[in-house]
Amino acid sequence: MDEFVTELLAHNAEHAEQFHTRFDDVQKSQAPHAVTVCCSDSRVLQDAMWTNTQPGRLFSCGNIGNRVVQQTDDGLVVSGDVLYPLVHTDTKTAIVVGHTGCGAVTAAYQALTTGTDEPSGIAHCLDLLTPSLADGVERLPEDLTREAAINRLVEYNVDQQIEHLRASEDVPTDVSIVGVVYDFQDRYSDQRGAVHVINIDGERDSSTLCEQHPEIADRISRLWNY
Predict the structure, then answer these.
(1) Is the pTM of this model over 0.85?
(2) How confident is the model at residue 1 (pLDDT cuts 50, 70, 90)?
(3) What does CATH list as the number for 33-216?
(4) Which of 27, 38, 143, 198 has the smallest number of Cβ neighbours within 10 A?
(5) DSSP annotation string for 187-209
(6) Domains of the chain: which residue ranges?
(7) What is the tens place of the pLDDT at every residue in 68-119?
(8) C-alpha angle 193/194/197, rounded to 5°?
(9) Which residues are 83's β-sheet partners?
């Protein structure tokens, strides 16, 4: 057995001991308050970023590029893993979580500018991102470094995923949609691991968001107001 897997199992034993009673109210059903759609990057700590240790509070989805869509015979639709809690568990909030230095956004940027050669599984995921990012690449200021361009496209990608949710007839109209960026590269502040709100229900102007949501004004920040 791989030594790291053995270590993980040991940690799981500790987890099971600590969490034994925390499943009492959710053993037979769930009613999460929010569904989060995060990038599956190993540096994005999906539950830890919210200090969530309570089963049943968050319905966490992860994939490369924090995408909310999938390709089906009916065309591009909101992914079932994202849609499930919104339709079946009365979840009223969806949170799209991008992150600084996103590898999927970087690969999509490269695909749109110089081309890529990826295995088909990865290429399929990028094909779900690139159409949404194409306009964003065209809008980028010419004087940006590549790193700065990627982090602005991270915001653009979050905005586009929110638009997919807002445009879908499958998403209930009373669902609130929040877009954030998880920063561990000191791009928004020196507080690594902080979440910065960049979009709420399609509104992405920082001043307007601060006026509409003064209780979180200190958490609202964008790198790019395009």
Answers:
(1) yes
(2) confident
(3) 3.40.1050.10
(4) 143
(5) SS-S-TTEEEEEEETTB--HHHH
(6) 33-216
(7) 999 999 999 999 999 999 999 999 999 999 999 999 999 999 999 999 899 9
(8) 140
(9) none
